[in-house]
Each structure stands twice: as C-alpha cells, then as structure tokens.
Amino acid sequence: MQNFAHEMQVAFALILAGDSELLGIVALSLRVSLFAVLFAALIGMPLGAALAVGRFPGRRALAVLVNALMGLPPVVVGLLVYLMLSRSGPLGVLQLLYTPTAMIIAQVVLVTPIIAALTRQVIEMLDAEYAEQMRSLGLSRLATVPVLLWDGRVALLTALLAGFGRAIAEVGAVIIVGGNINHVTRVMTTTIALETSKGNLALALALGTVLIAIAVTVNAMVSLLGQRAEAQEDVRHA
Amino acid sequence: MFENWIKAGAVALAITGAGSAQATEEFIVMQSTTSTQNSGLLDHILPAFTAESGIEVRVVAVGTGQAIKNAMNGDGDVLLVHAKAAEEKFVAEGWGVQRFDVMYNDFVLVGPAADPAGIKGGEDVVAAMSMIATAGVPFASRGDDSGTHKAELSHWKSAGVDVAAASGGWYRETGSGMGATLNLAAGMGAYALTDRATWIAFANKGDLEIMVEGDTRLFNQYGVILVNPEKHHGVKAEAGQRFIDWLIGSDGQAAIASYTLDGEQLFFPNAN
C-alpha cells in the first residue's frame, strides 16, 4: 500500500486531464443512477404518500413490506432482473440485458422502496399536522396528497438523496445485469471491483475516493437547492 | 394488453438514451473468463478485429461455469472459456455449434515464500498438493465452478484428498474470481492454483511466489464456440462466426502471440 499516494495522484491526474475513459465511466454512473432515482421517485413518492394518507385494508402490511424491501440484497435484485431480461426469460425479446437500461431497471427496484418508505414518513408527519385544516377545506384524503408532497418537498429531497446514495454505490446488481462491459456498461463501482480483482488495490481505492467526491458534490448541490427553497419559503411566510 | 405495456415501457426506456450506444454499431456479446480479461489479452487483440470488421465485441468476463450457463440462456453469441470437458458437453447437448482450440497457457501453484508445506521447486503438482493436505496448511480455492476450479478439483482427486471434508478448515473456498482468490491467498499466506496469465498480471502478490510449475497436468487449453442459433434465435451467428474465424485464423493467432506483459508471452496460440 506504500504506493497509495502515487495511485491517488494518478487517479486525480486522470480526472483533471479529462481522461475520456474515466470521464465516460463517471458519466455513465451518473446517468444510470440519476435516471434510476427519477423513475423510482415517480413510483415511490405517490406510493409512499398513498401509504401515509390512504385508509385501505392491508395498508399496514404494505408499509411493513416496503420498509423491509429497503434491505433488498442487490445481488438478489440483479439475479431477478437477469432472469427477466435473459434471452430465455419472459422479457428476453427486448434485448435489454447487458445495456445501461438493464442497470437502470435493477436500480429502480432497489431504490423505490427507500424513496417510498421515507416519503411515507414525511407525509405522515405533515398529514398529522394539517389533516384537520385540509378536511375543513373540504379536501378528500387523496386530494391532499399533491399538496402534502409539495409542502414536504425539501424533506423529500433527503429521500431522493438516500436513494441516489444507494444507487451510485451499488455493485452487486449492476455487475450481473450490465456485465461490466468496457465502454458500454462499466460504471465506477464495477471498475473498482475489476481493479481489485486485478490486484490494483491502490488504484481501486483511489477510484473509490473519486466516487465519494462525486457523491459529496451531488449531495452538496441538492442541499444548496434545499436551502434556497427554504429561504424563499421563509421570505413568503414573513 | 401485456405486450403493449412492454412495448410502451421499452419506448420509455429508449428515450432515456440508455440503448443509444448500440443503435449505430454492430456488436456481439462474448461470454468469457476473468483470466482473458484481467490479463489484458482481450484489450490487446479485440481492437484489431473491430477495426477490420466493424464489429464490436462486448465481453462479459465471469467464471467458466457461469459463462457456460449464461450462454445456455442465450445471453451471448460466442463463448471463450477453458474447461474442455464442459465445452464438449455444451456442444454435444446442442447449445453450441462447434468447438475450436484457440490457445493455451498453463496453471501454476503459488504459495507464501515461507513455504510451510515444503513444496517449492517441485514439478509434480499432485504430489505437492497432497503435501499441502498432509501439512494442513491453508489453501485458497476458487470454489466457483470456474475452469481453474475444475482443474484444481481434478488434481485433488488424483491426490486422493477429500477437500469437502477439509472445507472451512485448511481448505478455504472463496467462491470468487481468480483475482479475489489471490488477494485472499496473499492476505492469509495460503497456497492457490492460478493460471499463469492472471498471475503475471496480478499486482498484489505480496509474498506469494510460484511453488510448482511445468507439470504437463498443468496445461490450460482455451476453446471458442458459437452459441447455437437454433436454440436461441437472437444469436448473431454470422457476426459471431466471423469473429471465431478471425480468432483461429492467422491474424487472430498472431495477435494472441504478440501479447506480452513484462516481457513474458501470456498465451500461446494453437488453433488447428
């Protein structure tokens, strides 16, 4: 490990020099995970909100299930998506296996429960606070969902970030359904796994540091957005 | 109804730009092993084929056992692996069209410099492995049904050692790739069987050294097979066959022979 400092320099020099290979890998990581979070939010937020304000049989059981699915092992998700997308699987005709689309699908499955569970929590709290007010305005329970989602938007950013964190850091699922194909489905985490298997531990660790730097940047940007939104809110309330 | 949903989903996903990369270029998917990728061989030879044919070769590098199973599912057009008996079975059962020899290298038995089993310098791999078993010193096995794992198991069998009984004791099955297994061996001072190409390219040797080499039983043959398009209609038979013809032809064979690392040739072409 004595050459770790050297490998760090190499990794950052590659980034600073705009090494197209590495930038391509970083860009693909971001594209896959951001799309995954987007789709997961479109499914998970309404689902979470419905679980929070809805009153239907099986709601509690469903909420427990969603919470439990937050702990889905990525390898199992990878395997399930592989079996679906394999040429001999039910969706084989789509020829999506070993494409970034397959990776997005796997990450959507992983991220949706996280976003849904956190959304439920946020909306439940808001609902407890505003329920009477809304009902006095004659709004039905379901009609309050968009209002509550909008009101909780800053808190919901955290849910999105938690989902993004899970997606960008995940390797078990994307390596199965993506195949870690150079220039096609190779992302940061699978590159790190590959370099580790070649025994290039320092380079793998350096790439890991780059991954963390990217995650920090994305989080900082979202946090900044959240602060600005809150500040605008305060101005309006004043 | 269900099909319409699938189509709508596919369109939506296509909009994400996820599938855009493959729209312009012709490509085939090759199921192969970690040894051909980790050693750098494929990065060295594939660009020449792509330049000549316009066909991109997308490599999924897993253990031989998994590569064969993936190919049986139709998730690949070409199979390049190293477990002759399993390859011949794959063809005999109709999953593959025909098997061709491509190249060979050899396995080496590596272990810690301290050599607690006292096998260094030997040329009889079976005798050496039986000494490891007798001494009960750690041995790191792939344990993943890969070509290397199959080769290792055949040596234990020849040595009359029941490794299943020692599993979890001195016999450690990592269930992962060659590199991960070597990382573990380096970390715990264990012996391991590895193909020479991965060994030479491996950067985290620690105090591991070659203990036994040169036994004819350590020969490691690679073969290439076109996945049978009659089993899976999606198989790109024409492009796949074109790649196989190139690989076992003079250009591909010369490309394999020209690949060296630290001055050592890693693979030796031997197509008929």
Structural account:
The complex is a heterodimer of chains A (238) and B (272). Chain A is mainly α and 238 residues long. Chain A has a single domain (27-201), classed as MetI-like (MetI-like fold), CATH 1.10.3720.10. Chain A has helices at residues 4-16, 20-53, 59-69, 74-85, 100-136, 144-151, 153-169, 172-178, 188-197, 201-237. The longest helix of chain A is centred in the middle third of the chain and has 37 residues, at 100-136. The relative contact order of chain A is 0.16. The model of chain A has no long low-confidence stretch (mean pLDDT 89). Chain B has helices at residues 2-15, 21-24, 34-38, 41-53, 64-72, 84-92, 125-135, 147-159, 163-166, 178-188, 196-201, 237-248, 250-257; strands spanning 26-33, 55-62, 78-81, 96-112, 139-141, 171-173, 191-195, 208-212, 219-227, 260-261, 264-265, 268-269. The relative contact order of chain B is 0.20. Chain B is α/β, with parallel strands linked by helices and 272 residues long. Chain B has two domains: 26-104 and 221-269, Periplasmic binding protein-like II (D-Maltodextrin-Binding Protein, domain 2, 3-Layer(aba) Sandwich); 105-218, 3-Layer(aba) Sandwich (D-Maltodextrin-Binding Protein, domain 2), CATH 3.40.190. Helix content of chain B is 44%, strand content 25%. The A-B interface holds A 31-32, 35, 86-89, 91-101, 104-105, 179-182, 184, 194, 196-201 and B 6, 10, 13-14, 16-19, 21-22, 29, 34, 38, 43, 58-61, 70, 72-75, 176-180, 182-183, 186, 201-205, 232, 234. Chain B: Residues 1-23 form the signal peptide. Chain B: Residues 20-249 form the PBP domain. Chain B: Keywords: Signal. Chain B: This is Substrate-binding domain-containing protein. Chain B: InterPro entries: ABC-Tungstate_binding, PBP_domain.
